[in-house]
Amino acid sequence: MTQIYTEKPHFIFDALQKRFPDAHCELDYNTPFELLIATILSAQCTDERVNLVTASLFAKANTPDAIIALGAMELENKIHSLGLFHNKAKNILLTCKVLVEEFEGQVPEDIDSLRKLPGVGRKTANVVVSNAFGIPALAVDTHVFRVAHRLGIAQGKTPEKVEEELMDVFPRERWSLVHHLLIFHGRRICIARKPLCEECPVTRVCQVYQEQSS
Asked: Where in the chain is the domain with CATH 1.10.1670.10?
């Protein structure tokens, strides 16, 4: 790794932190369990819409036992406005049963245990351990994947590969915040269809911008 490449991630981190000093998880939650359910529901859906749904859902049921007591039909009715609600409800109920039967109703703090839960992939597990338990992790969603490629700090073809690359170039203690900074940047400036390059604080090191400007 060259010295130039080593300095680039640090510039990106500092510039984005200055631009988005309040970067944080935008899902509303009060407990690790609420964050786990909200993250499962967020697949192919905006955080804003998830927050509207979970406000009502968690007011009635915000523990594994309470979700199980709702049953499939009522849970589906509660989350019906979200995409893939049938599969999400199925996975949530199965996850709640596993939590009750194997983890005494508590959300495990390690990624491997979380990934054994139905509907919980690596991204969801990373989000939960990072935000609920303060364990450094770097979840790669569509925004992180897109921004990392555009900036040229990752070239992996899969979220897992991009995660590995980003963890290599950013210090472990910055992983969780890097995740939030790249998401904020991807949602507000480096948007999918037409990025707002004129508002971007990192164009001078952005691979795509430099290629288009040359």
From this structure: 3-24+138-213
